[in-house]
Amino acid sequence: AQTVTQSQPEMSVQEAETVTLSCTYDTSESNYYLFWYKQPPSRQMILVIRQEAYKQQNATENRFSVNFQKAAKSFSLKISDSQLGDTAMYFCAFFVPNTGNQFYFGTGTSLTVIP
Amino acid sequence: DGGITQSPKYLFRKEGQNVTLSCEQNLNHDAMYWYRQDPGQGLRLIYYSQIVNDFQKGDIAEGYSVSREKKESFPLTVTSAQKNPTAFYLCASSTEGLAVYEQYFGPGTRLTVT
Questions:
Q1: How many C-beta atoms lie closer than 10 Å to residue B45's C-beta?
Q2: Cβ contact (<8 Å) for A107 and B107?
Q3: Which of A66, A89, A103, B37 could form a disulfide with A39 if both were Cys (CB 3.0 to 4.6 A apart)?
Q4: What's the CA gap between A6 and B100, in Å, rounded?
Q5: Do A97 and B96 touch (CB under 8 A)?
Q6: Which residues of chain B neighbour A101 with C-beta distances below 8 Å?
Q7: Mean pLDDT rounded to a whole number for chain A
Q8: Do B101 and A33 touch (CB under 8 A)?
């Protein structure tokens, strides 16, 4: 079974500081894709960053970067220079091609950026 | 602009009534999905469809039904058999083009049943 675990229901960070959100997953597949989605108070889901499991290099998108540890099945998100607009729910997700085309989501981490 | 539309944003129904939530996409995506989101929980898959005229049950399909008659449209019907229908519903689509597996989401519909 494919599972995603986010063990931090809530986190907070001071504006301009750095915060790391944790995510672990479980799969027996070797080819898969990992994602972090952001859901602000508007509730619109927005893709933050994507990582292909076959790539060793960690993905980065401006202030967002991941620490992908394939052997440990860990996929954490680091947000640098936190901004008020980063306040949102963050969901970790993964997708395994050719196994039913389902995306698996964690339960989310609520991040609050404090001015 | 390409995207996914869901209507209406807020929907109110009386208990015992069926209600249909609309989802339309103009991204030319093959796959479409319906999720339910409750407070403190992640996204739970209700139904998904990989191609027209075909769909599969997700983890919580009981009390819901879908159709996929057109590539662009994937409506979700919440039936009176759904015991706790009040929730936030998200529609999504995805494509396997260039092996870029990514879901695009609509703005969601908040359904309240009283």
A1: 20
A2: no
A3: A89
A4: 24
A5: yes
A6: 31, 48, 50, 94
A7: 93
A8: yes
